[in-house]
């Protein structure tokens, strides 16, 4: 395997699963531990990761949408199916950016709903469904992340109200704080929370514990958390203590 390909796979593993040990990366890539250590040194010199004792970690901005869309698809589909069952016909639904919201949008075809979103992939998925009233928020386009952000997006949200907000996250801290790795997305997410009657966090087990330098909200701002059964039990308990219902699929 070429070094460049190994570097891509190492970064993808660290982004999707958090900190990883040299031994785990060695087994995953089918190369020696010495080779992995050399790769980690090179990637650290390039500023793409940080080496820690026994392994490495990545703390950076969101991955491009197309790359994230390939990660933990079955888990996201199970979470999306549960979320779709919460929605009643005739209701308004606010969908956040991200791939789990997209998986949810795929399950809304044929429903009589109003869908509001800043997620361009959600828009593309539902644009031809005549039964859905589709509201695309304005804003500046982030092409790689397929989202709209900025003051125009926030202004639009201040004029709207939705029965449901289904929100994604870059990661969840052990105390239940919802985080994001990209600062520009945080004001939009906060505006969405204010616009939603019921706030539902969609987070697969890979987000526990998660990374992110910017706090979006605390557990007290959530009504429901939908996750898969292998998620961190202590964090789920923190959600419940703050009054959020945790639904495990």
UniProtKB/TrEMBL annotation:
Q: Does the keyword Endoplasmic reticulum apply?
A: no
What is the protein's name according to its record? DeoR/GlpR transcriptional regulator
Q: Which species expresses this protein natively? A: Streptomyces himalayensis subsp. aureolus
**Gene Ontology MF annotations:** DNA binding; DNA-binding transcription factor activity
- Superkingdom: Bacteria
The record, for CDD domains, names: HTH_ARSR
**Has keyword Transcription regulation?**
yes
Entry keywords, A to Z = DNA-binding, Transcription, Transcription regulation
Q: Check the record and name the PANTHER family matching this protein.
A: AGA OPERON TRANSCRIPTIONAL REPRESSOR-RELATED, HTH-TYPE TRANSCRIPTIONAL REGULATOR SRLR-RELATED
- Which region is the signal sequence? none
């Amino acid at each position: 395997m070429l070094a460049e390909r190994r570097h891509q796979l190492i970064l993808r593993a660290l982004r999707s699963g958090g900190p990883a040990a040299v031994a785990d990366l060695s087994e995953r890539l089918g190369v020696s531990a010495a080779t992995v250590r050399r790769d980690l040194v090179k990637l650290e010199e390039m500023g793409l990761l940080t080496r820690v004792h026994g392994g490495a970690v990545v703390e950076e901005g969101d991955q491009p949408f197309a790359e994230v869309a390939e990660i933990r698809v079955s888990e996201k589909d199970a979470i999306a199916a549960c979320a779709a069952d919460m929605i009643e016909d005739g209701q308004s639904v606010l969908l956040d950016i991200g791939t789990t919201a997209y998986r949810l949008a795929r399950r809304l075809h044929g429903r009589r709903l109003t869908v509001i979103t800043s997620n361009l992939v959600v828009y593309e998925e539902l644009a031809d469904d005549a039964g859905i009233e589709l509201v695309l928020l304005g804003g500046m386009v982030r092409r790689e992340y397929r989202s709209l952000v900025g003051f125009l997006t926030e202004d639009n949200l201040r004029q709207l109200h939705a029965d449901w907000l289904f929100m994604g996250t870059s990661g969840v801290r052990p105390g239940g704080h919802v985080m994001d790795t990209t600062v520009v997305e945080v004001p939009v997410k906060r505006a969405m929370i204010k616009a939603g009657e019921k706030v539902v966090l969609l987070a697969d087990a890979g987000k526990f514990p998660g990374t992110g330098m910017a706090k979006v909200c605390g557990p007290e701002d959530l009504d429901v958390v939908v996750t898969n059964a292998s998620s961190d039990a202590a964090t789920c308990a923190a959600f419940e203590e703050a009054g959020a219902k945790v639904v495990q699929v």
